[in-house]
């Protein structure tokens, strides 16, 4: 009888945690006139960088290694940097340029747009 009660309690706890779980969603959109392969990195390259997990996520657009196409990166609970040239003022331009790394609530929704 005790093992049945523990099993039922375990299933109820599991159902409670599963119902409250959430995850970040990434939407990638290509407005460029040609195909963009996000996983293939030519150099120089405009990069979308992110660190997710916990109560706060961080993301940025980086042109440290160069620039190859315009990009916008937004978070549902944060700012929306847009970079349309190699001299983009909203991009992470050198190591430790932390003022260009916005944060947003954990498990937010993200939109990455090539050629906004």
UniProtKB/TrEMBL annotation:
Pfam families attached to this UniProt entry: Thaumatin
Database matches in SUPFAM superfamilies: Osmotin, thaumatin-like protein (SSF49870)
UniProt keyword list: Signal
Keyword Transmembrane: no
Signal sequence region: 1-23
Domain of life: Eukaryota
UniProt-recorded name of the protein: Thaumatin-like protein
The organism of origin for this protein: Miscanthus lutarioriparius
